Amino acid sequence: xxxxxxxxxxxxxxxxxxxxxxxxxxxxxxxxxxxxxxxxxxxxxxxxxxxxxxxxxxxxxxxxxxxxxxxxxxxxxxxxxxxxxxxxxxxxxxxxxxxxxxxxxxxxxxxxxxxxxxxxxxxxxxxxxxxxxxxxxxxxxxxxxxxxxxxxxxxxxxxxxxxxxxxxxxxxxxxxxxxxxxxxxxxxxxxxxxxxxxxxxxxxxxxxxxxxxxxxxxxxxxxxxxxxxxxxxxxxxxxxxxxxxxxxxxxxxxxxxxxxxxxxxxxxxxxxxxxxxxxxxxxxxxxxxxxxxxxxxxxxxxxxxxxxxxxxxxxxxxxxxxxxxxxxxxxxxxxxxxxxxxxxxxxxxxxxxxxxxxxxxxxxxxxxxxxxxxxxxxxxxxxxxxxxxxxxxxxxxxxxxxxxxxxxxxxxxxxxxxxxxxxxxxxxxxxxxxxxxxxxxxxxxxxxxxxxxxxxxxxxxxxxxxxxxxxxxxxxxxxxxxxxxxxxxxxxxxxxxxxxxxxxxxxxxxxxxxxxxxxxxxxxxxxxxxxxxxxxxxxxxxxxxxxxxxx
Amino acid sequence: xxxxxxxxxxxxxxxxxxxxxxxxxxxxxxxxxxxxxxxxxxxxxxxxxxxxxxxxxxxxxxxxxxxxxxxxxxxxxxxxxxxxxxxxxxxxxxxxxxxxxxxxxxxxxxxxxxxxxxxxxxxxxxxxxxxxxxxxxxxxxxxxxxxxxxxxxxxxxxxxxxxxxxxxxxxxxxxxxxxxxxxxxxxxxx
Lengths: 551, 190
Ligand SMILES: Cc1cc2nc3c(=O)[nH]c(=O)nc-3n(C[C@H](O)[C@H](O)[C@H](O)COP(=O)(O)OP(=O)(O)OC[C@H]3O[C@@H](n4cnc5c(N)ncnc54)[C@H](O)[C@@H]3O)c2cc1C
Description:
The structure holds two protein chains of two kinds. Chain A is α+β, with helices and mostly antiparallel strands. Chain A has helices spanning 9-23, 32-35, 63-76, 130-139, 156-161, 170-173, 255-267, 287-296, 304-310, 319-328, 343-357, 423-440, 471-490, 500-509, 512-528, and strands at 28-29, 56-58, 80-83, 102-105, 112-116, 121-124, 144-145, 179-185, 191-193, 227-234, 236-237, 241-249, 276-278, 333-341, 364-372, 412-415, 417-420, 458-460, 463-466, 494-495. Chain A contains 15 helices and 20 strands. In chain A, helix 12 (423-440) packs antiparallel against helix 13. Mean pLDDT of chain A is 94; it is low at 400-406. Chain B has a seven-stranded mixed beta sheet. Chain B is globular, with a radius of gyration of 16 Å. The two termini of chain B are 14 Å apart. The interface between A and B is medium-sized, with 33 and 26 residues.
């Protein structure tokens, strides 16, 4: 039997018995076969001695059980690692940051406590997946939408706790921002409610976010200060109609003005749907089209002459390719905009967007989809479902080996730096990262890469760095990944989220005034969790007893 | 939610009763395999579906995406009592199913990777429990190629005892399977 680091076998045995008394024998896991289920399927350390593994797992069903588990863990100094559904693939899966911790698996806490249609919010437990919430809403015929990430299998709470994102309107896409009120079990076992939830019997827990006094919800995300057992989220009222179209421009130099126009339209809420950037000329599809391209095979359809000209591209620019694009009517840039709302409103918003883009000489606009909602479920697959608030697993239909993808990987680590919302920054980031990736022999930023617009006001690159079956290649990519983080940091760019292996490198980039932010995080940790039992090391926040000692 | 321990005990009892000897296969005896999945896009996977039917197993074609199958069949199945499923799909589809299976404390217990080689043949890398290794070998000798893997998986789906054994074989005469991507035949169980 595995034992958590720093815990004697006899203490661990006693703790396990006490855990079993709380949740029942069958929900405490210690066999290798069961614990293998908590390995990170995308681990860049897969099968290596340093791979992060669990020593045990416990699956409670109630907040009271979680409180008891935390009290026992304090007594025996057992390190716990909380997951909701543990599907954090590309960012660590369900494996603990501090190898040998006991995973506190909340997937059996799966109650949908409330979905309020009249004021469009919900309250859920951590084990509720996007599929669960979506089906509940469908079954009850409630007129609200969820906002979900690409794979619908994850937890509404877990995704928000790692500050994930989705694809509908701007104010719902940022899943942590769209939460309202949480219930948290603190490291001493006490249960606390935030915002208006701190008032006994408040009816406004999901209606006003901050309550009064310091607004502390944020400190529980990407951290290890508590275990969230309930969380409220604002939902989008089901829109009446949906419109999606694209704006195309023919010149390389149009990128900057296009981004500026997009920013104005988004900041003024003229467009609120997920803006999606593509370049037909550079062979770069928008995110929402990627799976459709793969499924239909159209991603392989570039003619040989076009393919040849791609080799002339430097930092996104190629006068020869630009000329070819003009001859063959292939736009350099294509920005997809989407709108949700009453038909007359979204048509007017689209027209306003087109009018603003018309200031860029030669821009052209085309409506691709215009439909009343809800759509017929049979038609959903014509769309990138998450943009219509429909959870799916279709993201996994694109990983097969094909002529376009000759060596499908064993998974990936997401490289996801935030950069400024300008055309200039897109070019600069490509220049810097592609030179670095070439030197480090990393398969990223090869021809030209466009960022995504998950968040308002900034751009984010979300690039999959492959995990392979070859340890030497994985080592090279791991080291390269850390160097890319540091290179971005020199430019003032930092990741929004990262896998455990890179959390220290990423936190190091946030170094203003001698890392005062990180020092503050650890000061809080010492005050809140003196025994260091909760998710040690998450986002490089280590408890005092492990600081400087962990491997 | 099912009691996973009861389920595990149930499956071992079935193994002990010896219902998996190839000679005695029948629809009823394969009641323990709850579903067979195959990707309808490729010839070898379609063949897997056909072979599974001869074993009397419920077959489910998929086309890349498994959202509907997951929602309508697998999830209710695993939430209710759990259950063994077998299939032949792309590796990314298996990855997706493997993650979904984790939610119900199910896992991949045996698999065969089918890797196309540059000379047009396919290498089959078999990973099974040693209690079924002998039977697997004889089924592969009898049926060869992809069919061998299909029979091996269907006949040994409940084998859980012993260490994981790995063996490889290469098959030259591919016929309509040439040009298919890397595929994998697998068993997921509690
Ligand atoms: C192909 C692919 C596409 C993806 N697309 C997206 C996407 O579009 N958007 C996106 O955001 N992600 C995406 N991901 C990443 C990931 O799969 C999702 O974010 C997923 O929802 C996270 O897993 P989860 O919801 O099960 O959260 P969990 O794994 O349960 O939680 C994530 C982390 O949050 C913390 N945590 C969880 N629950 C609690 C709690 N109750 N209290 C305190 N801390 C907690 C833990 O440290 C945990 O490790 C993608 C991944 C892949 C492979």
